[in-house]
Structure formats: C-alpha cells, structure tokens
Backbone:
C-alpha cells in the first residue's frame, strides 16, 4: 500500500506542478481504487496531499506572478462553503458521491479541451488595472462554488479554478497557474478542517503519497514553465475524461 501510494503521488504531484490543478481530481480515485482506501479516508488524505504539493508547486511559479488579492478573496469565500460541503458529504451515499465526482470530471475535461482566452476580462483589463465592481462578485461566486466542492468531494478545486480564472475572470495563463495553486492550498486547509470531526486517515499512506507528490510537483513545476499551455491542457483534458469513465463504471457496477 505504501509503494502504490508513493507511485500515485508522483502522478498527482506532476499534474499539479504542470498545470496548476488536476491533482486533486485524480487523487481521490487513486486513493480509492489504486491504494485501496475507503472513500471516507481518501477525502481528507487527498486534501493533505494536494495542499502540501500545491504549496511546493507554487514556488517555481512565483516569478511569473501570483494575483494574491484574487487568491485570498476566492480562498476566503471558499472557506465558509467548504464546511457546508462537508456537512452534505456526511449525508450522501459514497456511490452517489463518486457518480457526482465523475460528472464533474467530465465537465472539467471538456472545458480543458475547449479553446480559452489567454487574457482579458473584468479582472485583467488591457491597461493592467482591475474593475473590482465587476470582478469582485465573480471572484466570490467562484470561491463559493469551489469551496463547496472541496468539502463535498475532497478536491482542491484546481480543475475548476484554472478555467474559471481564465474564462470568467480573464487572467493570463501564466498568472492563472500560480494563483490557482495558492487557492488550492487555502481550500485544502479549509476542507481538511471541515472533516476533523470524523477524521479517518492512515498517516503512513498519507506521508508516502504526499512526499512523492511534493517532489514531483517541484520538478514538474520547473518543467511546466517550458511547455506550451495548449499542449498541457489538451493532454490533461483527455486524461480527466478517461478517469471519469472509469470512476463512473466502478461506482455503478462495483
């Protein structure tokens, strides 16, 4: 179990380092089907792993810029709704949660395959300023949705944050990746805290998974700065769709 956790941790960390998201959406299926953890233990474990590896992955991206104000606004909005998501999580059957997870993965995969703007929008005006009257409500709404999903499904939200920052808020991709990683760290901490009341976690598995993910995210973060965004997004989108089909089939027929 420790060896498989480390192996999957390398994959999850590499995705976080390359595209600023996606590691969490694969971490839960990897922990459930690859490592063999029950869903109740996989969700908080995923939050620890993704939060730690995102904190490491953001380091190579600091030079390219992080929109700290947006990251804090979106992260703060998500903190409150993460607790609501965790409450709903305790009321639902694990099979329903996994099917919901698969549906969100399909949405995320399709969005990553669709063409996106590189810049523009209310949060990234051509002159470099920010129209906060238009940007602030969008940022708060984005944070609230992502935070709820963090508590509900144990995802850091990067697979939704990346499209949201580029499409809805209009940030350039170079800033989107670093900003997304900071938000994932905030959301992961909030989501983990929301699960403390009924925490089920294997710390040996978590340490192996997180250690491998942190190492891979640091290396991949440096490599990712040299790979075209379009190629990364397309490959990630296809991978997410394949995993979504697998998760849905497992939930329906297991």
Residues:
């Amino acid at each position: 179990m420790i060896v498989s956790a480390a192996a999957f941790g390398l994959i999850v960390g590499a995705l976080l380092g390359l595209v600023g998201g996606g590691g969490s959406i694969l971490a839960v299926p990897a922990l459930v089907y690859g490592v063999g953890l029950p869903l109740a233990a996989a969700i908080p474990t995923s939050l620890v792993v993704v939060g730690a590896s995102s904190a490491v992955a953001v380091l190579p991206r600091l030079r390219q810029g992080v929109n700290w104000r947006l990251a804090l606004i979106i992260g703060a909005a998500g903190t409150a709704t993460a607790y609501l998501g965790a409450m709903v999580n305790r009321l639902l059957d694990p099979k329903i949660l996994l099917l919901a997870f698969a549906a969100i993965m399909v949405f995320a995969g399709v969005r990553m395959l669709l063409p996106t703007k590189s810049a523009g929008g209310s949060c990234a005006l051509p002159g470099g300023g920010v129209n906060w009257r238009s940007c602030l409500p969008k940022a708060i709404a984005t944070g609230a949705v992502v935070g709820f999903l963090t508590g509900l499904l144990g995802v850091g939200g990067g697979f939704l944050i990346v499209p949201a920052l580029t499409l809805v808020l209009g940030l350039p991709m170079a800033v989107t990746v670093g900003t997304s990683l900071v938000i994932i760290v905030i959301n992961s901490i909030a989501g983990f805290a929301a699960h403390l009341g009924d925490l089920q976690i294997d710390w040996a598995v978590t340490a192996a998974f997180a250690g491998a993910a942190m190492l891979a995210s640091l290396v991949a973060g440096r490599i990712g700065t040299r790979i075209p965004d379009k190629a990364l997004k397309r490959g990630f989108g296809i991978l997410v769709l394949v995993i979504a089909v697998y998760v849905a089939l497992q939930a329906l027929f297991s």
Observations:
- The chain is about 75% helix and 0% strand.
- The CA atoms of residues 123 and 164 lie 11 Å apart.
